[in-house]
Amino acid sequence: MPSKLPVKPVVAMNADSQRGVALLTVLLLVVSITVVAGAMLASQKIAIRRSGLLFDQNQLLQDIDTGQQLAVTLIRADAKLNDSDSEQDIWAQPIPPYTLGGHSIGIELRDEASRFNINNLYHNGAVDTAALAVFQRLLTQLNLEPDIAIAVLDYQDTDSEVYQDGGDETVVYNQESNRGADRTLPNQALISVDQLAEIKGVNAEVLAALRPYITAVPYYLPINMNTASPVLLTALVEGATSQQMQSIVQLREKQAFSSVDDVWQLPILSSVKEEQRKALTSLLAVDSQAFMALITASDNAAIGQARQRFATIIISKTAADEIENSSNNSDKNSNDAKNAQNTNSKKPKDIRVVTQRLWAFRPNF
Fold first, then answer.
1. How far, in whole angstroms, is CA 302 from its chain's centroid?
2. 3-state SS class at 291
3. Residue 287 has pLDDT above 70, yes or no
4. Residues paired with residue 224 on neighbouring β-strands, in sequence order
5. Residue 216: burial class (beta carbons within 10 Å; 0-12, 13-18, 19+)
6. Buried b (16+ CB within 10 A) or exposed e, 175-201
7. Model's pTM, two decimal places?
8. Using CA atoms, how far apart are residues 140 and 147, in angstroms rounded to an integer?
9. Extended strands (E) in 34-161
10. Mapping DSSP to helix (H, G, I), strand (E, B) and coil, where does residue 290 land?
């Protein structure tokens, strides 16, 4: 008789299969939960990191505001000590970093009146011929084309003709211009020296040569004879030599000039004609009506990991009763400047921030 094969119980096989499926399902669930939990944890870490970065950024911005207040306070304190601004004043001395918790705030101050304000070329709806002549002489000293001064003026004035030429600005300045074709000039004051790169004849090399001697303050700004560089001083007077102006620098290092009249009385300037003195007087001062501050906020982390933010601000310092005039006109005419120069010492000063610009990197200063 043939042998009988053993028969496996069907129930037992079904039970084993169900246990396998259940185990596989549990494993899949565990893997899925693990993946989801890992994704949630990673997302939470990113959110926490983002929140920390935003907190740090907000803290750095608060540090910049604090630095701004400190800079204004320093200028205000200096204004109470004397009526002139020179390299001997407290604002001109190195300012140590200010520590605030785990952060530090650095402040660097610069007298903007030690430079030529390119917005002096056109104000009160008219060309300032004295300022234009000074700028042209400055360009010549730097071995640059004096016609650049005309291009900068036409960038600001409100007409559509090239100054003293009569040509159409659009036609003239769209040729070899950095602004591109078929673009009219903005006919307004410049808000930054960097805007000069848009002007015909100003390339990177020209801008680099000019940058140490110019500024773009949004109102009329006389040149401070106590802080102006020898190069700019030489550009003030036609026919002046750098040797003459270096002697002025040596004199003011011993004692700051207290009035523009003191400067004109110097023997080395005795040859300057009266007509030229009158033309220049409104452009000169012995104090500053504008300072630039570079504020650096740092979180003091390890070197290479420290986060920093920067801000440049312009601080105005004007006679209290001239503030409304400055804000409405963004400049002063030559007669007002001369009168202010003679009377500012008897009036309280109004010191405030007029512009602020934030930077992710350290700017040229």
1. 28
2. strand
3. yes
4. 285
5. buried
6. eebebeeeeebeeebbeebebbebbbb
7. 0.77
8. 10
9. 98-100, 103-111, 116-117, 122-123, 126-127
10. strand
Q: What pairing do the DSSP bridges indicate for beta strands 308-319 and 349-359? A: antiparallel
CA–CA–CA angle 70, 329, 215 (5° rounding): 55
pLDDT of residue 171: 77
**Residue owning tokens 């009035």:** 259
Angle at which helices 274-281 and 129-141 pack, to 10 degrees? 100
> Side chain identity at 339, as an amino acid letter?
N
Residue type, 115: R
Phi, psi of 74 (to 5 degrees): -65, -45
Q: Tell me how far the alpha carbon of residue 60 is from its chain's centroid.
A: 18
C-alpha distances in Å from residue 276, one per residue of 40, 130, 217, 282: 76, 9, 25, 11
Q: Are strands 103-111 and 98-100 parallel, antiparallel or unpaired?
A: antiparallel
CA distance 74 to 21: 79
Q: What is the mean pLDDT of residues 18-36?
A: 76
- Nearest by Cα to 161 from 150, 145, 177: 150
Which tokens sit at 365? 């200063």
How would you classify the pairing of strands 214-215 and 223-224? unpaired
- What DSSP assignment string belongs to 62-77? HHHHHHHHHHHHHHHH
Which tens digits make up the pLDDT trace of 148-176?
Answer: 999 999 999 988 888 988 778 877 777 55
Residue 188 in tokens: 């307004």
